Protein backbone atom coordinates (compact mmCIF):
# COMPACT_ATOMS: atom_id res chain seq x y z
CA UNK A 1 0.00 0.00 0.00
CA UNK A 2 2.86 2.34 0.88
CA UNK A 3 4.51 1.68 -2.48
CA UNK A 4 1.30 2.49 -4.36
CA UNK A 5 0.85 5.74 -2.44
CA UNK A 6 4.47 6.73 -3.07
CA UNK A 7 4.12 6.08 -6.83
CA UNK A 8 0.93 8.14 -6.99
CA UNK A 9 2.57 11.11 -5.25
CA UNK A 10 5.61 10.90 -7.53
CA UNK A 11 3.34 10.78 -10.59
CA UNK A 12 1.51 13.95 -9.54
CA UNK A 13 4.81 15.70 -8.83
CA UNK A 14 6.26 14.80 -12.23
CA UNK A 15 3.09 15.97 -13.95
CA UNK A 16 3.25 19.27 -12.08
CA UNK A 17 6.88 19.83 -13.03
CA UNK A 18 6.11 19.03 -16.68
CA UNK A 19 3.27 21.59 -16.76
CA UNK A 20 5.24 24.37 -15.07
CA UNK A 21 6.39 27.16 -17.41
CA UNK A 22 4.17 26.10 -20.35
CA UNK A 23 1.68 28.36 -22.21
CA UNK A 24 -1.41 26.64 -20.87
CA UNK A 25 -4.11 24.88 -22.93
CA UNK A 26 -3.40 24.43 -26.64
CA UNK A 27 -6.21 25.24 -29.11
CA UNK A 28 -7.07 22.46 -31.53
CA UNK A 29 -7.92 23.64 -35.06
CA UNK A 30 -11.19 22.58 -36.66
CA UNK A 31 -11.23 19.49 -38.81
CA UNK A 32 -11.11 19.70 -42.60
CA UNK A 33 -13.79 17.42 -44.00
CA UNK A 34 -15.50 16.68 -47.29
CA UNK A 35 -19.23 16.09 -47.75
CA UNK A 36 -20.69 12.61 -47.75
CA UNK A 37 -21.06 10.97 -51.13
CA UNK A 38 -24.04 12.41 -52.98
CA UNK A 39 -25.39 13.15 -56.45
CA UNK A 40 -26.86 16.57 -57.18
CA UNK A 41 -27.23 19.07 -59.99
CA UNK A 42 -27.62 22.84 -60.14
CA UNK A 43 -28.63 25.54 -62.60
CA UNK A 44 -27.94 29.23 -62.10
CA UNK A 45 -28.33 32.61 -63.79
CA UNK A 46 -26.88 36.00 -62.86
CA UNK A 47 -27.73 39.50 -64.05
CA UNK A 48 -24.60 41.65 -64.48
CA UNK A 49 -24.56 45.45 -64.52
CA UNK A 50 -21.04 46.40 -65.51
CA UNK A 51 -18.79 48.98 -67.10
CA UNK A 52 -15.75 48.59 -69.37
CA UNK A 53 -12.41 50.08 -68.36
CA UNK A 54 -9.32 50.14 -70.60
CA UNK A 55 -5.75 51.41 -70.60
CA UNK A 56 -4.90 55.06 -71.24
CA UNK A 57 -3.95 54.63 -74.92
CA UNK A 58 -7.45 53.41 -75.63
CA UNK A 59 -9.37 55.46 -73.07
CA UNK A 60 -8.08 58.95 -73.97
CA UNK A 61 -9.09 60.96 -77.03
CA UNK A 62 -8.13 64.49 -78.04
CA UNK A 63 -10.48 67.31 -77.09
CA UNK A 64 -8.47 70.27 -78.40
CA UNK A 65 -6.73 70.58 -81.77
CA UNK A 66 -3.91 70.39 -82.54
CA UNK A 67 -3.59 67.79 -79.78
CA UNK A 68 -2.81 69.71 -76.61
CA UNK A 69 -5.80 68.47 -74.65
CA UNK A 70 -7.15 65.05 -73.72
CA UNK A 71 -10.51 63.75 -72.56
CA UNK A 72 -11.57 60.34 -71.31
CA UNK A 73 -13.94 58.30 -73.41
CA UNK A 74 -16.34 57.04 -70.75
CA UNK A 75 -18.04 53.77 -71.59
CA UNK A 76 -21.64 53.46 -70.45
CA UNK A 77 -22.90 50.99 -67.87
CA UNK A 78 -24.75 48.11 -69.49
CA UNK A 79 -26.28 44.71 -68.77
CA UNK A 80 -24.85 41.24 -69.20
CA UNK A 81 -25.56 37.77 -67.88
CA UNK A 82 -23.90 34.61 -66.63
CA UNK A 83 -25.30 31.08 -66.99
CA UNK A 84 -24.10 28.14 -64.90
CA UNK A 85 -24.74 24.40 -64.71
CA UNK A 86 -23.11 21.75 -62.51
CA UNK A 87 -23.22 18.05 -61.75
CA UNK A 88 -22.18 17.10 -58.20
CA UNK A 89 -20.93 13.60 -57.44
CA UNK A 90 -18.68 11.56 -55.15
CA UNK A 91 -17.53 13.28 -51.94
CA UNK A 92 -17.78 16.97 -52.83
CA UNK A 93 -16.70 16.81 -56.49
CA UNK A 94 -18.39 18.69 -59.31
CA UNK A 95 -18.11 19.40 -63.01
CA UNK A 96 -19.24 22.94 -63.83
CA UNK A 97 -19.84 24.82 -67.09
CA UNK A 98 -20.29 28.62 -67.05
CA UNK A 99 -20.86 31.23 -69.76
CA UNK A 100 -20.57 34.97 -69.16
CA UNK A 101 -21.77 37.38 -71.86
CA UNK A 102 -21.48 41.16 -71.84
CA UNK A 103 -21.98 43.80 -74.53
CA UNK A 104 -22.14 47.58 -74.37
CA UNK A 105 -22.55 50.48 -76.81
CA UNK A 106 -21.54 54.07 -76.06
CA UNK A 107 -21.63 57.33 -78.03
CA UNK A 108 -19.86 60.48 -76.83
CA UNK A 109 -19.15 63.77 -78.62
CA UNK A 110 -16.99 66.88 -78.40
CA UNK A 111 -13.67 65.39 -79.52
CA UNK A 112 -11.15 66.84 -81.99
CA UNK A 113 -9.02 65.07 -84.57
CA UNK A 114 -7.59 65.24 -88.06
CA UNK A 115 -7.84 63.30 -91.29
CA UNK A 116 -4.22 62.82 -92.48
CA UNK A 117 -4.52 60.16 -95.16
CA UNK A 118 -4.95 62.29 -98.28
CA UNK A 119 -1.85 63.20 -100.29
CA UNK A 120 -3.93 65.66 -102.32
CA UNK A 121 -4.49 68.10 -99.46
CA UNK A 122 -3.11 68.98 -96.02
CA UNK A 123 -4.64 67.24 -92.95
CA UNK A 124 -8.12 68.42 -92.07
CA UNK A 125 -8.66 69.29 -88.41
CA UNK A 126 -12.28 68.80 -87.40
CA UNK A 127 -14.57 67.70 -84.60
CA UNK A 128 -16.00 64.21 -84.32
CA UNK A 129 -18.25 61.96 -82.27
CA UNK A 130 -16.82 58.71 -80.89
CA UNK A 131 -18.88 55.52 -80.80
CA UNK A 132 -17.69 52.31 -79.14
CA UNK A 133 -18.87 48.72 -78.98
CA UNK A 134 -17.38 46.29 -76.45
CA UNK A 135 -18.11 42.61 -75.99
CA UNK A 136 -16.85 39.75 -73.82
CA UNK A 137 -17.79 36.08 -73.98
CA UNK A 138 -16.13 33.88 -71.37
CA UNK A 139 -16.65 30.11 -71.06
CA UNK A 140 -15.24 27.98 -68.22
CA UNK A 141 -15.28 24.19 -67.97
CA UNK A 142 -13.84 23.18 -64.60
CA UNK A 143 -13.78 20.41 -62.00
CA UNK A 144 -14.13 21.36 -58.35
CA UNK A 145 -13.65 19.92 -54.86
CA UNK A 146 -15.71 21.14 -51.90
CA UNK A 147 -14.19 21.11 -48.40
CA UNK A 148 -15.52 22.19 -44.99
CA UNK A 149 -13.10 23.98 -42.66
CA UNK A 150 -14.89 23.66 -39.35
CA UNK A 151 -18.57 24.39 -38.86
CA UNK A 152 -18.98 27.73 -40.67
CA UNK A 153 -16.17 28.00 -43.25
CA UNK A 154 -16.46 26.31 -46.64
CA UNK A 155 -14.18 26.34 -49.65
CA UNK A 156 -14.33 25.01 -53.18
CA UNK A 157 -11.12 24.59 -55.15
CA UNK A 158 -11.46 24.30 -58.92
CA UNK A 159 -9.42 24.15 -62.08
CA UNK A 160 -9.99 23.58 -65.77
CA UNK A 161 -10.10 25.41 -69.10
CA UNK A 162 -11.22 28.92 -70.00
CA UNK A 163 -12.10 30.38 -73.40
CA UNK A 164 -12.40 34.13 -73.91
CA UNK A 165 -13.56 36.17 -76.90
CA UNK A 166 -12.97 39.91 -76.42
CA UNK A 167 -13.85 42.61 -78.94
CA UNK A 168 -13.53 46.39 -78.70
CA UNK A 169 -14.35 48.76 -81.57
CA UNK A 170 -14.08 52.56 -81.49
CA UNK A 171 -15.24 54.68 -84.43
CA UNK A 172 -14.49 58.39 -84.90
CA UNK A 173 -17.38 59.90 -86.85
CA UNK A 174 -16.03 63.10 -88.43
CA UNK A 175 -18.61 65.66 -89.44
CA UNK A 176 -16.96 66.66 -92.71
CA UNK A 177 -14.63 65.51 -95.48
CA UNK A 178 -11.50 66.98 -97.10
CA UNK A 179 -12.45 69.13 -100.09
CA UNK A 180 -10.39 66.94 -102.44
CA UNK A 181 -12.63 63.94 -101.70
CA UNK A 182 -16.02 65.61 -102.10
CA UNK A 183 -16.02 65.26 -105.94
CA UNK A 184 -15.73 61.48 -105.38
CA UNK A 185 -19.02 61.50 -103.47
CA UNK A 186 -17.39 61.31 -100.01
CA UNK A 187 -19.09 63.85 -97.77
CA UNK A 188 -17.99 62.49 -94.39
CA UNK A 189 -15.21 60.27 -93.07
CA UNK A 190 -14.97 57.81 -90.19
CA UNK A 191 -11.86 56.38 -88.52
CA UNK A 192 -12.15 52.81 -87.21
CA UNK A 193 -9.92 51.48 -84.40
CA UNK A 194 -10.98 47.85 -83.93
CA UNK A 195 -9.27 45.12 -81.91
CA UNK A 196 -10.13 41.64 -80.71
CA UNK A 197 -8.64 38.67 -78.87
CA UNK A 198 -9.57 34.99 -78.84
CA UNK A 199 -7.75 32.56 -76.59
CA UNK A 200 -7.93 29.46 -74.44
CA UNK A 201 -5.92 28.25 -71.47
CA UNK A 202 -5.91 26.94 -67.90
CA UNK A 203 -7.93 28.58 -65.12
CA UNK A 204 -7.83 27.99 -61.36
CA UNK A 205 -9.89 29.50 -58.57
CA UNK A 206 -11.32 29.33 -55.06
CA UNK A 207 -14.89 29.89 -53.85
CA UNK A 208 -15.17 30.77 -50.15
CA UNK A 209 -18.19 31.12 -47.89
CA UNK A 210 -18.59 31.98 -44.22
CA UNK A 211 -21.91 30.99 -42.66
CA UNK A 212 -23.48 33.78 -40.59
CA UNK A 213 -26.64 31.75 -39.93
CA UNK A 214 -28.17 28.62 -41.41
CA UNK A 215 -29.50 30.74 -44.29
CA UNK A 216 -27.12 33.70 -44.73
CA UNK A 217 -23.44 33.53 -45.66
CA UNK A 218 -20.69 35.84 -46.87
CA UNK A 219 -19.12 34.73 -50.15
CA UNK A 220 -15.87 35.49 -51.96
CA UNK A 221 -14.25 34.24 -55.14
CA UNK A 222 -10.82 34.62 -56.69
CA UNK A 223 -9.68 33.19 -60.02
CA UNK A 224 -6.86 33.53 -62.51
CA UNK A 225 -6.11 32.25 -66.00
CA UNK A 226 -3.40 32.38 -68.66
CA UNK A 227 -4.77 32.26 -72.20
CA UNK A 228 -2.95 31.65 -75.47
CA UNK A 229 -4.50 32.99 -78.62
CA UNK A 230 -4.61 35.62 -81.38
CA UNK A 231 -4.83 39.38 -80.95
CA UNK A 232 -5.76 41.47 -83.99
CA UNK A 233 -5.98 45.18 -84.75
CA UNK A 234 -7.54 47.02 -87.69
CA UNK A 235 -7.49 50.76 -88.28
CA UNK A 236 -8.77 52.53 -91.34
CA UNK A 237 -10.50 55.55 -92.83
CA UNK A 238 -13.82 54.92 -94.55
CA UNK A 239 -15.66 57.45 -96.70
CA UNK A 240 -19.44 57.82 -96.56
CA UNK A 241 -21.97 57.41 -98.00
CA UNK A 242 -20.12 55.36 -100.65
CA UNK A 243 -18.43 53.08 -98.03
CA UNK A 244 -15.02 53.50 -99.67
CA UNK A 245 -11.96 52.29 -97.72
CA UNK A 246 -9.56 55.17 -98.21
CA UNK A 247 -6.65 53.89 -96.12
CA UNK A 248 -6.20 50.94 -93.74
CA UNK A 249 -3.70 49.24 -91.41
CA UNK A 250 -3.92 45.67 -90.06
CA UNK A 251 -1.91 43.51 -87.67
CA UNK A 252 -2.23 40.11 -86.00
CA UNK A 253 -0.05 38.23 -83.53
CA UNK A 254 -0.03 35.27 -81.16
CA UNK A 255 0.10 36.29 -77.52
CA UNK A 256 -0.30 35.19 -73.90
CA UNK A 257 -2.97 37.01 -71.90
CA UNK A 258 -3.25 36.61 -68.10
CA UNK A 259 -6.47 37.47 -66.30
CA UNK A 260 -7.67 37.97 -62.73
CA UNK A 261 -11.17 37.90 -61.26
CA UNK A 262 -12.46 38.77 -57.80
CA UNK A 263 -15.93 38.75 -56.28
CA UNK A 264 -17.53 39.58 -52.91
CA UNK A 265 -21.16 38.95 -52.02
CA UNK A 266 -23.91 37.77 -49.70
CA UNK A 267 -25.88 34.55 -50.24
CA UNK A 268 -29.29 33.52 -48.92
CA UNK A 269 -30.14 29.79 -49.03
CA UNK A 270 -33.82 28.83 -48.97
CA UNK A 271 -34.44 25.16 -48.27
CA UNK A 272 -37.09 23.42 -50.37
CA UNK A 273 -38.55 19.93 -50.48
CA UNK A 274 -36.29 18.67 -53.27
CA UNK A 275 -33.36 21.07 -53.08
CA UNK A 276 -32.09 24.54 -52.16
CA UNK A 277 -32.70 27.89 -53.84
CA UNK A 278 -29.76 30.31 -53.48
CA UNK A 279 -30.07 34.08 -53.97
CA UNK A 280 -26.74 35.88 -54.20
CA UNK A 281 -25.75 39.49 -54.81
CA UNK A 282 -22.46 41.33 -54.68
CA UNK A 283 -19.70 43.11 -56.61
CA UNK A 284 -17.13 41.74 -59.02
CA UNK A 285 -14.16 42.79 -61.15
CA UNK A 286 -12.60 41.06 -64.17
CA UNK A 287 -9.43 42.14 -65.98
CA UNK A 288 -7.59 40.73 -69.01
CA UNK A 289 -4.07 42.17 -69.19
CA UNK A 290 -2.69 43.44 -72.55
CA UNK A 291 -5.45 41.62 -74.43
CA UNK A 292 -6.08 44.28 -77.10
CA UNK A 293 -3.92 46.20 -79.57
CA UNK A 294 -4.45 49.82 -80.55
CA UNK A 295 -2.83 52.66 -82.46
CA UNK A 296 -3.63 54.75 -79.42
CA UNK A 297 -4.75 58.29 -78.93
CA UNK A 298 -2.53 59.54 -81.77
CA UNK A 299 -4.28 57.20 -84.26
CA UNK A 300 -2.28 55.85 -87.24
CA UNK A 301 -0.34 59.13 -87.52
CA UNK A 302 2.12 57.96 -84.86
CA UNK A 303 2.60 54.60 -86.61
CA UNK A 304 2.99 52.86 -83.22
CA UNK A 305 0.88 49.94 -81.97
CA UNK A 306 0.43 49.63 -78.20
CA UNK A 307 -1.55 47.24 -75.99
CA UNK A 308 -4.51 47.80 -73.70
CA UNK A 309 -6.14 45.93 -70.83
CA UNK A 310 -9.81 45.02 -71.01
CA UNK A 311 -11.60 45.17 -67.66
CA UNK A 312 -15.14 44.97 -66.33
CA UNK A 313 -16.50 45.93 -62.93
CA UNK A 314 -19.91 46.22 -61.31
CA UNK A 315 -22.63 44.58 -59.21
CA UNK A 316 -24.37 41.27 -59.87
CA UNK A 317 -27.50 39.48 -58.66
CA UNK A 318 -28.30 35.83 -59.31
CA UNK A 319 -30.35 32.73 -58.56
CA UNK A 320 -29.09 29.15 -58.34
CA UNK A 321 -31.13 26.05 -57.63
CA UNK A 322 -29.40 22.93 -56.29
CA UNK A 323 -31.49 19.77 -56.66
CA UNK A 324 -31.09 16.14 -55.73
CA UNK A 325 -30.72 13.44 -58.37
TrEMBL record:
Residues 1-20 form the signal peptide. It comes from the Bacteria. InterPro entries: Major_OMP_Legionella. Keywords: Signal. It holds the Pfam family Legionella_OMP. This is Outer membrane protein. It comes from Legionella shakespearei DSM 23087. The lineage of its organism: Bacteria, Pseudomonadati, Pseudomonadota, Gammaproteobacteria, Legionellales.
Amino acid sequence: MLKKTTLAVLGLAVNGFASAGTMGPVCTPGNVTVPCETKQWDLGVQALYMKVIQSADRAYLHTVAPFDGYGEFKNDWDWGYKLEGSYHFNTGNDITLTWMHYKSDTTQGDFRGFIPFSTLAPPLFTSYTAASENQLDQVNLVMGQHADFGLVKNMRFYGGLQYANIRSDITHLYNQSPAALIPSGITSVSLHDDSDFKGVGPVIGIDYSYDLTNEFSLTANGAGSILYGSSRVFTGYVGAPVAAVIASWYGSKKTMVPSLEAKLGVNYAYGMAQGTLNIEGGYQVVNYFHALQTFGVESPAANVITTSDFGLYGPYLGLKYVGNV
